[in-house]
Amino acid sequence: MPEGHSVHRITRQFARNFVGHVVHASSPQGRFAEGAAVIDGRRMVDARAVGKQMFLEFEGGVWLRVHLGMYGAWDFAGDIRMDATIASANGRMGQTNQRGTFLDAPNPDAVVLDAAGENSLTSIGAPRKARLRMSEAEKESDAPEEFPPEPVGQVRVRLLTDTVCADLRGPTACEVRDSAEIEQTVAKLGPDPLVDDTDAAEQRFTEVVRRKPTPIGLLLMDQSVVSGIGNVYRAELLYRARLDPHTPGKLVPEETVRALWRDWAHLLRIGVETGQMMTMDGLDPDAWRAAMADRADRHWVYKREGLPCRTCGTNIVLEEMGARKLYWCPTCQT
């Protein structure tokens, strides 16, 4: 399932390519024909993300709410203008990492390719013709010969301007809502550091966690407690905090809860900038390049069950928590 950084990246593509343009909407699959008819011919005026949900606003107070869920993905095609901080190299989409940004990589100018189809760090400039899939991993393929291209697969909704189209497949939620309904939806979500990184947002997160008897490993995945954290970030945040996933929220020290919030803000920004869930700090240039090229070198505990902890040597444990796989070190995190 795409985690918060991926949804923010997709939303930035809509902000760059669709906001300000009249959009033609259709449902090649047919399941969203009624909703597409409501959007069709309206100008997109805003694109926002909160956690794992994205919200596209059109003239007249009409919104499209999308939750990609486990299998959803957007395909972009046409003269795609990359977001100012998003770039591409050698067929894979990524984030530009220029000197002066917050991400202090050991070698900011390195071209790093990820073998699993995630992202690189080099800008190619824009606009240019391309076909780009954006979900948890972003992959670019050859540009279609005709524009707009024929829909491929079960396209729930197609959004089309004169130069760019975006096809949505397999979402958990795709619905038209008015402004009041969107406000109600957002109000039910926990804070997102990229939307609100104020002291008030940190306090809200801290107070909710500190009054719950629920294990912290479940609270971090509860989108009403905090927005955007999925399975990868949960495991890595808990390890970085040296926190037992089974600890009830109310028993986690306040300073640790606040540190979790700040670390989530830190990792989320890195994820948006690089396109990768990089969760290891302080790497030398060679280790950085290896980590950006291979997820196996990018995380402390995620997907490392049975392997020795990078810190203490204890084998990483895999168990199920909240119907999702949980990876943790029983020595460092107790």
TrEMBL record:
<keyword id="KW-0863">Zinc-finger</keyword>
<keyword id="KW-0862">Zinc</keyword>
<comment type="similarity">
    <text>Belongs to the FPG family.</text>
</comment>
<keyword id="KW-0378">Hydrolase</keyword>
<dbReference type="GO" id="GO:0003684">
    <property type="term" value="F:damaged DNA binding"/>
</dbReference>
<keyword id="KW-0479">Metal-binding</keyword>
<dbReference type="InterPro" id="IPR010663">
    <property type="entry name" value="Znf_FPG/IleRS"/>
</dbReference>
<dbReference type="Pfam" id="PF06831">
    <property type="entry name" value="H2TH"/>
</dbReference>
<dbReference type="GO" id="GO:0008270">
    <property type="term" value="F:zinc ion binding"/>
</dbReference>
<keyword id="KW-0326">Glycosidase</keyword>
<dbReference type="InterPro" id="IPR015886">
    <property type="entry name" value="H2TH_FPG"/>
</dbReference>
<keyword id="KW-0238">DNA-binding</keyword>
<feature type="domain" description="FPG-type">
    <location>
        <begin position="300"/>
        <end position="334"/>
    </location>
</feature>
<protein>
    <recommendedName>
        <fullName>DNA-(apurinic or apyrimidinic site) lyase</fullName>
        <ecNumber>4.2.99.18</ecNumber>
    </recommendedName>
</protein>
<keyword id="KW-0511">Multifunctional enzyme</keyword>
<dbReference type="GO" id="GO:0000703">
    <property type="term" value="F:oxidized pyrimidine nucleobase lesion DNA N-glycosylase activity"/>
</dbReference>
<dbReference type="Pfam" id="PF06827">
    <property type="entry name" value="zf-FPG_IleRS"/>
</dbReference>
<dbReference type="GO" id="GO:0006284">
    <property type="term" value="P:base-excision repair"/>
</dbReference>
<dbReference type="InterPro" id="IPR010979">
    <property type="entry name" value="Ribosomal_uS13-like_H2TH"/>
</dbReference>
<keyword id="KW-0234">DNA repair</keyword>
<dbReference type="InterPro" id="IPR012319">
    <property type="entry name" value="FPG_cat"/>
</dbReference>
<dbReference type="GO" id="GO:0140078">
    <property type="term" value="F:class I DNA-(apurinic or apyrimidinic site) endonuclease activity"/>
</dbReference>
<dbReference type="Pfam" id="PF01149">
    <property type="entry name" value="Fapy_DNA_glyco"/>
</dbReference>
<keyword id="KW-0456">Lyase</keyword>
<keyword id="KW-0227">DNA damage</keyword>
<feature type="domain" description="Formamidopyrimidine-DNA glycosylase catalytic">
    <location>
        <begin position="2"/>
        <end position="89"/>
    </location>
</feature>
<dbReference type="InterPro" id="IPR035937">
    <property type="entry name" value="FPG_N"/>
</dbReference>
<dbReference type="InterPro" id="IPR000214">
    <property type="entry name" value="Znf_DNA_glyclase/AP_lyase"/>
</dbReference>
